[in-house]
């Protein structure tokens, strides 16, 4: 046998030879399956004796011959299918005679309603929000992983890089996939397992899908971006915004009854959001231990959820190496500093509500603090709900405890908090009691700096925080405030993302 007969070129010629119609049949069947939800041969990876015979063998042969005749152009084959009457039929099963004769729709007398695959749900949300990047080709990106997904690996974050927001706005086609490490949206909507060869993806309906769409970070971020894009300068009336939301998410105008419902929903949500206090939230984004490589690439804001405006995050100090992973030092972990807090350099009183979510291990409020290298130095008011201890620390290269006291710290309850700093004296009151839990005088309390916060284990919220200083009152969360109508529109966009009309095509 000569070398030519054994070459890859010879194999390619045999695969694409007109005398070998199997390649074109498999190709055409896959393209048909993409648009009709089911192949003419229902087992696209098995055209042998163990596979299911095609329902329309003559049609499959004709499509295969057209593919070859058109120079193996998938684009031309797709144009042929999409302009056909079979594709353009409705999926509504309104024909009683058709249902009686062919309930399974083997004869394609109607279209098959198909749920979007995981990647299309991802891309559709980015398109609706206006964030979808048109960049094509090149290196892929690493999608953002939740804290739980990262924590499921033996070395959390190993082999996973931190891509920029711009890169993460590309189509899901370019996302890196790793076995056992998949974003929640892709996992919930039956994304393909990269370790398996899958001819037909499952299309399940589970409670997890609703939870991911209603509570997941990706859906919430896309709804927020869509609302911001639609609101623009804030001069558009609510009725017009309702129409724009339908046009943006569902690519059609609302019917009169839908428009009335959406307008009422916006008004109810606007009124509800107007009554809510301002809240500053802080929450860890990574598990308790993270690989060295992931930490080298991550910035502070990729380790800690924090307010969007007027706060700067620091990655903290990571110690205790084990199995190529590190954990944050208790006194100098990831934290965020208020960059507009010049008023806190002098004497002040801070009033806020403190709420710790279930699972919170430690929460810290920094006072007269500043950034030093990769951590926050200054006064630290530490809350430890595990043992019910409130303590005051001076944090620098080392942490020095100045005072401690017992205090009840129930989870998911807003506790009134008052912190007063006067020179070298710090007075802390928490809860309903007027008595101070801490009243400390120490020269190490003196100094200059601003406010900061951090959370370990789960989220903490500062509700309606305000500073009394220089004879005036300053609202710490004012920069995070958004118009109630924009927040209402965000809720409407999130609801539209959850509709069958968005998730299915017919």
Describe, in plain words, how this protein is organized in 3D.
It is built from 16 helices and 20 strands. It is an alpha+beta fold and 506 residues long. The protein folds into three domains: 4-88, no CATH class; 113-276, no CATH class; 279-480, Exo-inulinase, domain 1 (Jelly Rolls), CATH 2.60.120. Strands 2, 4, 9, 14, 15, 16, 18 and 19 form an eight-stranded antiparallel β-sheet that branches. Helix 2 (22-36) packs across helix 4 and helix 12 (238-250) runs parallel beside helix 15 (484-497). It starts with 7 loop residues before the first helix and ends with a strand. The relative contact order is 0.11. The model has no long low-confidence stretch (mean pLDDT 92).
Could you name the CATH homologous superfamily of the largest domain?
Exo-inulinase, domain 1
Shape: elongated
Largest sheet: 8 strands, antiparallel
The helicity comes to: 25-40%
Structural class, judged by helices and strands? alpha+beta
Mean model confidence by pLDDT: 92
Spatial extent as radius of gyration: 29 Å
Overall domain count: 3
Poorly predicted runs of 5 or more residues: none
Strand content: 15-25%
Alpha-carbon distance between the termini?
A: 53 Å
CATH fold-level topology of the largest domain: Jelly Rolls
CATH architecture of the largest domain: Sandwich
Number of helices: 16
Number of strands: 20
Supply the CATH class of the largest domain.
Answer: Mainly Beta
List the helices and strands and how they pair.
Elements: H1 8-15, H2 22-36, H3 57-69, H4 74-82, H5 85-88, H6 96-101, E1 114-115, H7 118-129, H8 147-151, H9 184-188, H10 207-215, H11 217-231, H12 238-250, H13 256-274, E2 279-284, E3 290-291, H14 292-297, E4 304-305, E5 311-314, E6 318-322, E7 325-328, E8 335-338, E9 348-356, E10 362-372, E11 375-384, E12 389-395, E13 399-406, E14 415-422, E15 425-430, E16 438-441, E17 450-456, E18 460-469, E19 472-475, H15 484-497, H16 500-503, E20 504-505
Antiparallel strand pairs: 1-20, 2-4, 2-18, 3-7, 5-8, 6-7, 8-17, 9-14, 9-18, 10-11, 10-17, 11-12, 12-13, 14-15, 15-16, 18-19
Helix pairs in contact: 2-3, 2-4, 7-11, 10-11, 11-12, 11-15, 12-13, 12-15, 13-15
């Amino acid at each position: 046998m000569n070398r030519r007969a054994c070459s890859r070129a010879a194999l390619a010629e045999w695969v694409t030879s007109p005398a070998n119609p199997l390649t074109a049949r498999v190709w055409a069947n896959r393209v048909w399956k993409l648009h009709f939800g089911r192949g003419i041969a229902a087992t696209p990876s098995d055209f042998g004796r163990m596979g299911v015979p095609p329902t329309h063998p003559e049609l499959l042969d004709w499509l295969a011959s057209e593919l070859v005749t058109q120079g193996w152009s998938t684009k031309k084959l797709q144009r042929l299918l999409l302009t056909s009457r079979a594709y353009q039929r409705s999926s509504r099963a309104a024909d009683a005679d058709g249902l009686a004769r062919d309930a399974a729709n083997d004869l394609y007398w109607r279209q098959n309603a198909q749920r979007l695959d995981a990647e299309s749900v991802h891309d559709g949300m980015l398109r609706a929000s206006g964030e979808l990047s048109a960049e094509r080709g090149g290196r892929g990106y690493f999608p953002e992983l939740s804290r739980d997904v990262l924590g499921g690996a033996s070395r959390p974050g190993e082999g996973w890089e931190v891509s920029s927001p711009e890169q993460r706005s590309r189509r899901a086609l370019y996302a890196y996939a790793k076995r056992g490490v998949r974003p929640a949206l892709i996992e919930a909507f039956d994304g393909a397992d990269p370790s398996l060869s899958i001819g037909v993806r499952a299309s399940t309906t589970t409670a997890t899908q609703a939870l991911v769409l209603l509570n997941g970070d990706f859906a919430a971020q896309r709804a927020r971006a869509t609302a911001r894009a639609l609101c623009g300068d804030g001069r558009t009336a609510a009725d017009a915004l309702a129409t724009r939301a339908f046009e943006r998410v569902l690519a059609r105008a609302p019917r009169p009854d839908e428009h009335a419902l959406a307008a009422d929903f916006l008004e109810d949500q606007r009124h509800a959001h107007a009554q809510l206090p301002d809240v500053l939230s802080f929450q860890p984004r990574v598990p308790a231990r993270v690989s060295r490589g992931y930490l080298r690439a991550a910035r502070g804001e990729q380790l800690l959820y924090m307010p969007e405006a007027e706060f700067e995050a620091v990655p903290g100090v990571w110690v205790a190496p084990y199995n190529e992973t590190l954990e944050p030092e208790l006194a100098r972990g990831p934290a965020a500093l208020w960059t507009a807090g010049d008023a806190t350099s002098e004497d002040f009183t801070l009033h806020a509500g403190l709420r710790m979510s279930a699972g919170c291990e430690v929460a810290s409020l920094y006072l007269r603090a500043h950034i030093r290298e990769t951590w926050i130095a200054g006064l630290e008011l530490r809350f430890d709900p595990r043992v019910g201890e409130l303590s005051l620390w001076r944090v620098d290269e080392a942490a020095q405890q100045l005072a401690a006291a017992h205090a009840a710290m129930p989870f998911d309850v807003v506790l009134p908090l008052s912190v007063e700093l006067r020179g070298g004296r710090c007075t802390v009151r928490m809860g309903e009691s007027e008595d101070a839990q801490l009243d400390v005088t120490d020269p190490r309390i003196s100094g200059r700096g601003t406010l900061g916060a951090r959370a370990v284990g789960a989220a903490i919220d500062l509700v309606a925080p305000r500073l009394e200083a220089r004879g005036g009152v300053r609202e710490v969360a004012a920069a995070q405030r958004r118009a109630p109508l924009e927040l209402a529109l965000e809720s409407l966009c999130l609801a539209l993302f959850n509709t069958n009309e968005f998730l299915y095509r017919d």
